[in-house]
Amino acid sequence: MLTPLTRFRYSIDSFLGRQMLYLLARIVPHLTREKALKLGSTMGWLTPRLTPHRLYRVYRDITLAFGGELSPGERLQVALDVYHHLGISLVEFLRLPDMSHEEIRGLVRIEGAKYLDAALAAGRGAVLLTGHIGNWEMGGTALAVFGYPMTAIARPQENPTLNDLFLRIREAHGMNIVPLSDVRGCITTLRENRFLAILGDVNAKNPGAFVQFFGRPAATYTGAAYLSLTTGAPLIPIFDERLPDCSHCIRVHPPITVSETGDRRRDLLATTMRAQYVIQEEVRRRPHEWFWQLQRWKTRPEDTKNPERIPMEHRDLTPEEADEVLSCAS
Question: How many whole angstroms from its chain centre is CA 315?
């Protein structure tokens, strides 16, 4: 439990962070791309050194995931690289409204577009499963620029000014935004043969399931699996990756096998397990590009207090059943 002093420190950090973001939103659009990237790199170097308590939280979760695979020095380097990556991602995000379609197309390429095209041809849209990895904001915008009918689910920011800023940037190139709570709007989007992007790696405060993520139970929303099962839209993993020259590659994976046994609860659990496995392996491949600040394991099974809504758990399946489920995601 946080002490009052710690809560105060985090509230000051958040306030200063918002003020810095507003300032950057005014400055960055007037910079060349090269100068903006240099600014982002500098911020990424400074931030963890000015806020070591936040760096420690990132290091702690990297240790939970990779403690047996990476040395303490390697884990610290990943944590520092995470901040460097985020600094660059932030200035890229703030530049998006002022970038031309030609500039975006020149910076982004798509691998696996055949899976997107097949989904559109089938007429049911697609649930695009992604995560806070690479520059997910750039990825969604680029798909809209390339002509795909994009809608993304986003949680509204509590601060109205910040929410308006984020909404303006996200919708600048034709992507629609629906709030997390608008289930009917999500279903309508898919039935209109549009793509619905969902960030599937957040810590769920009211989880539908606890499934394994790097070997630890993680509170997970089952919404992506639910929407795919309900509408028949394919569940397609898709991730942005920053390349060494700071261009981007959007990699589209084959659709995840959606369980349809007739047992709704088990189908949701099995499909969610597969989705989390795909995200996990993407993070394993390039941990420095994932947003470790999410605190993926924050909600624990014992924290769920609603007896009428007991989350499903990975262990609800036998080890053999779990292996069979995940074999379809490998």
Answer: 25
* Spans of all domains in the chain: 1-98, 106-303+310-330
> How far apart, in Å, do the first and last CA atoms of the chain sit?
38
Q: How far apart are CA 103 and CA 273, in angstroms?
A: 37
Whether the model clears a pTM of 0.70, i.e. scores above it, the answer is yes
Among 195, 177, 175, CA closest to 125: 195
- 153: enclosing H helix or E strand: strand 150-154
* The length of the chain, given as a count of residues: 330
Position 10 pLDDT exceeds 60: no
Buried b (16+ CB within 10 A) or exposed e, 174-205: ebebbeeeeeeebbebbeebbbbbbbbbbbbe
- Region at 262 (left for phi over 0; alpha for psi -120 to 50; beta for the rest): left
Give 206's pLDDT tier (boundaries 50, 70, 90): confident
CA atoms 55, 58, 61, 67: torsion sign: negative
pLDDT digits (tens, 9 = 90+) for 286-325: 999 999 999 999 998 877 665 455 677 766 666 566 666 6
Cβ neighbours for 155, distance < 8 A, ≥ 6 positions apart: 179, 180
Check pLDDT > 70 for residue 326.
no
SS3 (DSSP) at 213: strand
* pLDDT tens column, 209-224: 999 999 999 999 999 9
Among candidate residues 52, 130, 82, the one with its CA nearest the CA of residue 293:
82
Q: Name the amino acid, one letter, at 62.
A: I
